Amino acid sequence: MRVRALETILVAKGYVDPAALDALIDTYETRVGPRNGARVVARAWSDATYRRWLQEDATAAIASLGFSGRGGEHMVVVENTPSVHNMVVCTLCSCYPWPVLGLPPVWYKSAPYRARAVSDPRGVLREFGVELPDTTQIRVWDSTAEVRYLVLPMRPAGTQGWTEEKLATLVTRDSMIGTGLPLLPTQAEP
Questions:
Q1: How far is CA 45 from its chain centroid?
Q2: In the chain, what is the greatest distance between 2 CA atoms, to the nearest angstrom?
Q3: Which of 33, 36, 107, 139 is deepest in the core (most CB within 10 A)?
C-alpha cells in the first residue's frame, strides 16, 4: 500500500512517468529474471565449451546470451559438486545479479538470512528444505557491489538427451542462489 501511495504521489507531481514505470516493471517481470539464469545454467549443462567459458569469464559468457547490465557487470559462477555446495549472500546489503535472477526475494535482503547464511549455512539450507550429507562442504560467497555470484547447480540425473529449453525448466532461482536444488525430471513442467 505504501508503494502504491508513493507511486500515486510521484505521478501526480510529475516526477514519474507511468509509462516509464510500466516499462521498467515489464523489464524485470518479462525480460530479466530467473528464466535468464536458467538459460545460462541449461547451456552450461549441455555445452562443455560454454561451461568452461562460464567458469573462466562468467560476465562475458552470460553477456553472450544477451544478459548484462546493472548488477551483472562482474559475475562469478561457482559450481556445485557432490562434495561442495555453494550458497550466496550479501552480508552488507542485498547485492544481487539482477540480469540473471531478476528482483531479489525479500528473504535475501533480510538481516536474519544475511547473518545466519554465514554463521549457520547448514541450518539455513535445512530451513529451505535442503538436506546435505555431513561430508558435503558448504561454501558461502559474499556478493558485493564489485562482484555478484551465480551458483551453477548440479545437473539432475535422468536428463541425458534433454534440450536446453527442457533443462531450463528444472532450474529454480533458489538453486542459482544455492538455497535450493534444481527440480527433478519428474517435477518438470510438461
A1: 16
A2: 59
A3: 36
Rounded to the nearest 10 degrees, what angle do helices 18-26 and 2-12 cross at?
140
Q: Which amino acid is at 131?
A: E
What is the per-residue pLDDT for 93? Answer: 83
Instruction: Assess contact for 59 and 73: CB atoms under 8 A.
Output: yes
SS3 state at 56? helix
Taking 3-state DSSP, the helix, strand and coil percentages for the chain, each rounded to the nearest 5, stand at: 45, 10, 40
SS3 105: coil
Q: Which residues are catalytic?
A: 90, 93-95
Q: Could you read off the pLDDT of 2-28 as tens digits, one per residue?
A: 878 888 898 899 888 888 878 877 776
**Measured CA distances, 18 to 7, 8, 10, 70, 142 (Å):** 9, 9, 9, 22, 36
The three three-digit cell numbers of residue 173, written as one number: 532461482
CA–CA separation, 152 and 56 (whole Å)? 13
**Residue 75: in which H helix or E strand, if any?**
strand 75-79
